[in-house]
Amino acid sequence: MVRTLGFTVAVIVSLVAWGARQLNQNQPAQFTPAAQTQNQTGNYKHLAALDYKNGSTPVITVGHDHAQLNMSDWAGPKILYGNLDSLNRTTTNVGYLNRQTLIHSAGRPSQNFEPTGWHNRYVIIDGKRVNRQNRGHLIAYTLSGNLSVTGHFQAGALGSSDNPKNLATQTEFANQVLMQPYEEQVRQALENGAKVIYRVTTVFRGQELMPRGYWLQAKSDGGLDFNVYIFNVQSDIRYDYATGRSVIDHSINVPEQ
């Protein structure tokens, strides 16, 4: 009887340990903003305080355009998705990417999540239909292939399209014009077989719900290195970043790069 009881206890302990390992493996790969370096925190505060000057360049360099990243930290492929803050706003996502994470298909799954500050409605400007806002990915969908929604490697996974930790309210211009050249640099580096660390932070001022901008950093083992801040702005539209609402204002002029 004692031997049977001991065997039963051993089995239960083994099952509990196995369950704990499985649970741990399925937990999201998370990045905690509190783990940022002092220099990164200082840059964040500086960027959050910046006001876009009408007619000026909408993309500026940070840290002399050199990423505050170290390739010795590459541990992938995976994406660390930062937890939403107390206002349900995105924080920082870090991708440890290689050629396996590239997505080459033209389409993507639909998006339904509404990030903080979401008040999109189209307007006709100069005869063209213009969206006031996009659901802007921090880590581009096309860079998240074979990774689960929690950021772990999963062969065949479709990538991160409608992940609340990877979507913020971004102007159509910032998303589709200003940010894409930098995403393309990352894609090209991956196509060339490089490993890339790609870090994206949404920058909010105080308790505002729409980010003032996107802070992008990337570094590879093949020479890629940039550190830029993209203002979340668009010509002919004035945004209230506290709420995300907007009005037409033809005095707003945001040039392309």
TrEMBL record:
Q: One MF term in GO for this entry? A: metal ion binding
- The protein's superkingdom reads Bacteria
Mind telling me which SMART domains this protein's record contains? Answer: Endonuclease_NS (SM00892)
Query: Domain named DNA/RNA non-specific endonuclease/pyrophosphatase/phosphodiesterase: which ranges?
Result: 73-248
Q: Which InterPro entries match?
A: DNA/RNA_non-sp_Endonuclease_sf (IPR044929), Endo_G_ENPP1-like_dom (IPR001604)
Report the leader peptide range. 1-19
Please state what the protein is called: DNA-entry nuclease
